[in-house]
Design a protein that fits this description.
By secondary structure, the protein is of the alpha/beta class. It is built from ten helices and 16 strands. Strand 11 (198-200) and strand 12 (205-207) form a beta hairpin. Bound molecules: aspartic acid (ASP).
Length: 346
């Protein structure tokens, strides 16, 4: 049996001498994958209960109960599953004895799920999303320690009020800020602009800062999320993808443009975006640049000044995939560009 807990770890019990309770919601991903000879590659196979059983140290620090939500690769994650996860997390946290929720998840879309839950889980108790870069069958799998660390953060008194966090590779990152930065390395989840909130190191869970830009847009299992597509801008883009979407029988409710630089598109994309606005589609301008805000600085067709005055919403510093998540939820409240802009500015 691998020993993960250092000797110095203080086991946290409440006043009654009872270990804190954590609900694990399990969804699959590499952390739960095995080599499947028939399929010729890794595939989700292990249940959440099996993940917990493989790390006996967990039982020394927490009482856990596990709910299997799905068992999929997170490239197959859907907004319907997000709604279910939000409902199950809120239900779990409504029990006084539950200290926090941990969600095991594939890394591909982990940051989208984390941000959706950051927006839809209410209350102050911690929610931690965790995955692995190396499947359990590898000798250097990071899954067991990541899972243990996720539970350590979920029961940490310092984690209260920090929203949804991603805990991997010993680092704690805020859902709104974190992104996957490397396809294979274990050090992949980073908050590129502002850094991690804290660490789950060999001795302790310690926070050094708190996320300030948080908001809640509650959603229930029956919520009808807006349908939002992401369209990229690049040299020579001609807007045909936007026009193809507008020709659909039911065009999307919203578009996120992964613009260039400060949030720019060329003249052809500008024309297509204006057509989308005329058709009542909400358009949010983000950027493909990894850090920094979309700013109305440059004049001319397709600059952020022009796009904003045409009725587009600027995404602040949200990545295109996070802007999409926020727009899907914001569209359940309003379609007004002014109101949407207020939500994106929070
Ligand atoms: N394909 C996997 C997934 O996202 C990758 C991972 O978990 O790291 O489910």
């Amino acid at each position: 049996m691998r020993r993960l807990l250092p000797l110095l770890t203080v086991i946290s019990m409440n006043a009654a001498g009872v270990l804190p309770q954590v609900r694990i919601l399990s969804t699959g991903g590499t952390i739960a994958s095995r080599f499947d000879a028939a399929k010729g590659g890794l595939a989700p196979a292990l249940t959440g209960a099996q993940l917990v059983e493989a790390v006996p140290e967990i039982m020394k620090i927490a009482r856990v109960d596990v709910e299997q939500i799905v068992n999929i690769s997170s490239s197959q994650m859907t907004p319907e599953i997000w709604l279910k996860l939000a409902a199950r997390a809120n239900e779990a946290l409504s029990h006084e004895e539950v200290a926090g929720v941990v969600i095991t998840h594939g890394t591909d879309t982990l940051e989208e799920t984390a941000y959706f839950l950051d927006l839809t889980v209410t209350g102050q108790k911690p929610v931690v999303v965790v995955g692995a870069q190396r499947a359990p069958s590898y000798p250097d799998s990071d899954g067991p320690r990541n899972l243990l660390n996720a539970i350590r953060v979920a029961i940490s008194p310092e984690a209260a009020g920090k929203g949804v966090m991603v805990v991997m590779n010993g680092q704690i990152n805020a859902a709104r800020e974190v992104t996957k930065t490397n396809t294979v390395e274990m050090e992949t989840f980073k908050s590129l602009e502002f850094g991690a909130l804290g660490v789950a190191d060999l001795e302790a869970v310690r926070f050094y800062r708190a996320p300030l830009r948080r908001q809640t847009i509650p959603a229930g299992p029956e919520t009808k999320l807006g349908r939002v597509e992401i369209v990229a801008h690049y040299a020579g883009a001609d807007g045909r993808l936007i026009r193809a979407l507008l020709r659909e029988e039911a065009p999307p409710d919203g578009l996120v443009i992964a613009g260039t630089g400060l949030g720019h598109v060329n003249a052809a994309m500008h024309d297509a975006i204006l057509e989308a606005l005329r058709r009542g589609v909400a358009v949010v301008i983000s950027t493909r640049v990894y850090t920094g805000r979309v700013i109305p600085l440059y004049a001319g067709k397709g600059g952020a000044i022009d796009l904003r005055s045409a009725g587009c919403v600027l995404a602040d510093n949200l990545s295109p995939q996070k802007a999409r998540v926020l727009l899907m939820l914001a569209l359940t409240r309003t379609r007004s560009p002014e109101e949407l802009q207020k939500i994106f500015a929070r």
